[in-house]
Amino acid sequence: METKELMEKATRFHGHICPGLAIGVLAAKYVLEHGFNYSPNEEVVAVVENDNCSVDAIQSLLGVTYGKGNLIHQDYGKLNYYFYNRETEKAIKLSIKDKVFEDKKKSKHEKIKQLLDSKPEKVFNIYEIDFNPPSLAEIEDSIPCDICGEPTMNSRLMFYENSSMCIPCYKAQRK
């Protein structure tokens, strides 16, 4: 798929055009062109180190989602993206190059055009990495919180003063 088509698809999902979306489109384009396919299940895993617009492009173009457990967010504030293909056991890291946003005088539309006219290799440092993906998503039992009664994933329950509780109730009890 051409960059323009990828951007149109990502824009329909995201709702507007912006430089962050263009960055995600280029990351997804590279991944799609290098042995990764759209992931209807959990074949492809993306680990992202930011929560900006780029992640919507990656989600919509690669089929990775929080619900399937193959989109993992690590809140480091970096434009780094790790991709794992469980079928081929291939893994790559894309990291934004330092000079991409060097020209501060460009308008938003000029930045988008520049990004979309670029090859991913001009925008990202690209590395093959060891195949060590996050584990498959697990389905866990939900247990009622002893304080509020709301069902909570077993692995997220906190234990305090002989009670098992959800994280918000735990935080409230610890104040």
What does this structure look like?
The protein is an alpha+beta fold and 175 residues long. It folds into 2 domains: 126 residues, 60s Ribosomal Protein L30, Chain: A; 32 residues, no CATH class. It has 6 helices and 9 strands. α1 packs across α3, α2 runs parallel beside α3 and α2 runs parallel beside α4.
Structural descriptors:
175 residues; alpha+beta; 60s Ribosomal Protein L30, Chain: A; 5-stranded mixed β-sheet; two-stranded antiparallel ribbon; 6 helices; 33% helix
CATH architecture level-2 label of the largest domain: 2-Layer Sandwich
Main beta sheet: 5 strands, mixed
Mean pLDDT level: 94
Structural class: alpha+beta
Q: Provide the gyration radius in Å.
A: 19 Å
Total count of strands: 9
Domain module tally: 2
CATH topology (level 3) name of the largest domain = 60s Ribosomal Protein L30, Chain: A
Short description, anyone?
The chain contains 6 helices and 9 strands.
Topology:
Layout: H1 3-14, H2 19-33, E1 44-48, H3 54-62, E2 71-73, E3 80-85, E4 90-96, H4 108-117, H5 120-123, E5 124-128, E6 142-144, E7 151-153, E8 158-160, E9 163-165, H6 167-173
Parallel strand pairs: 1-2
Antiparallel strand pairs: 1-3, 3-4, 4-5, 6-7, 8-9
